[in-house]
Amino acid sequence: MRAFLPVTMALMFATFAFGCEEAGNEPGIGGIEQGAEPQVLPAGSASGYYSLTRDMRKCMYPMCGGYYLTAVNQTRMRCVDGSLQKSCYVADADFSAIKLPGSDFDALFSRVNSKLVVFHGTVESNVIEGRGDYGRLVADKVYSAVTDKLPGTYEPIYFAMDNGIRCIKAPCLSIDDVKVNTNSAPRSVMDVDFSGVQGATQEQRDAASMALYEAGVLVAGYHE
Questions:
Q1: Burial class (CB in 10 A: 0-12, 13-18, 19+), 219
Q2: What's 107-118 look like in SS3?
Q3: pTM of the entire structure?
Q4: Would you list the DSSP string of 109-153?
């Protein structure tokens, strides 16, 4: 299991422990549920969650030097040129909405290529005169894995947050979660169990639990 916290608090990958949910109907390859049509994130029309990889090719801008985006929980996404790809190249990225000191942002970016950071934002048109449309990611949130240890098997990623429900007896389904970048309906669950987050300290697990009641967390795991 993995858990991601919003970077203003410190992102993390953690494991889910959900109450009152039946096992089974796990996602297929790439996080697309068996028998379901994949949602293709359309460039320029919807926000989504993306992992980034720096383009280290040695050629002229804007053809090289940007970023490759991969849509979380998806096997493909629609690029600005209209094609469907496993990942899409964009020449630029706008991180100005993410308010972090320069040193903190540099430290965050050192983890980008390791798939330990997830950005939320929109892929927009970015027409460069005489070159064409090379796209731009406009990011508004960022999540970073709590630890550097990632599980070897695929786990779908959910956004989980307190829904405000309070009960006088158990079970109390006080947390909503939704599989990001899909059309899946939110599910209400009893709890999120962060004990399976590999390498996380108790302090980090406590921070993840607190974040559920504040900005929410990204969690990789399964319903039980």
A1: buried
A2: HHHCCHHHCCEE
A3: 0.79
A4: HTTGGGT-EEEEEEEE--EETTTEE--EEEEEEEEEESSS---SS
Helix, strand, or coil (residue 34): coil
Closest CA to 4 of 200, 223, 224: 200
Cβ–Cβ < 8 Å for 3, 217: yes
For residues 36 and 108, give the distance between their C-alpha atoms in angstroms, rounded to a whole number: 35
Confirm if 118 and 143 have CB atoms less than 8 A apart: yes
Nearest to residue 118, comparing CAs of 16, 27, 216?
A: 216
Structure tokens at 69: 């985006």
Instruction: Give residue-wise pLDDT tens across range 105-161.
Output: 788 888 888 778 899 999 988 888 888 888 999 999 888 888 876 655 577 889 999
Contact 206, 146 (CB under 8 A): no
**Token pair of 59, please?**
């050629």
CB of 135 closer than 8 Å to CB of 89: yes
